[in-house]
Specification:
mainly beta; 14 strands
């Protein structure tokens, strides 16, 4: 169970760091950060991150856990450095809502899938958009990278 989250909360998104030490959950548009107490096995809330995204509903940690990306259905994206959880300037505002966020295995890129089937690819940590590709005839539900 997650200590510190309201019982009436509906978790919209969860992301776990690859080492299993931190968990980010989006509940009622608020981003909650939980740290694992490996001795007791409990997850304790360590922070509730203030965001410029009042409608947050997606969260994704980078593979090494250095960044936490948060997006919303309006197409807005914010990225935190997990060293101090300072929010970077918003890197993307789009009229196309976000449905999926995924970091590349090396953590250098962040893919954002949109309701209209397009995918934005951003570089990390600079968080600048490098390309947006329109995928015709497919509604993007999940964005994923493969190791090839």
């Amino acid at each position: 169970s997650l200590t510190g989250i309201d019982a009436d909360c509906t978790l919209e998104s969860l992301s776990l760091t690859s080492d299993g030490s931190a968990l980010a959950g989006v509940c009622n548009s608020q981003v909650h950060l939980f740290l694992k107490d490996f001795e007791s096995g409990a997850w304790n809330e360590s922070a509730s991150l203030a965001s410029s995204l009042p409608g947050a509903d997606l969260a994704s940690f980078s593979p090494a856990g250095a960044f936490l990306a948060v997006g919303d259905e309006k197409g807005n994206l914010a990225v935190w450095s997990t060293a101090d959880y300072a929010e970077t300037p918003e890197v993307m505002r789009s009229s196309n809502g976000l449905v999926s966020l995924e970091f590349s295995p090396d953590g250098e890129f962040l893919a954002a899938g949109h309701w209209d089937g397009s995918v934005s690819l951003l570089t990390v940590p600079q968080q600048t958009t490098t390309t947006t590709t329109r995928v015709v005839g497919i509604i993007t539900g999940v964005v994923s990278f493969t190791l090839e």
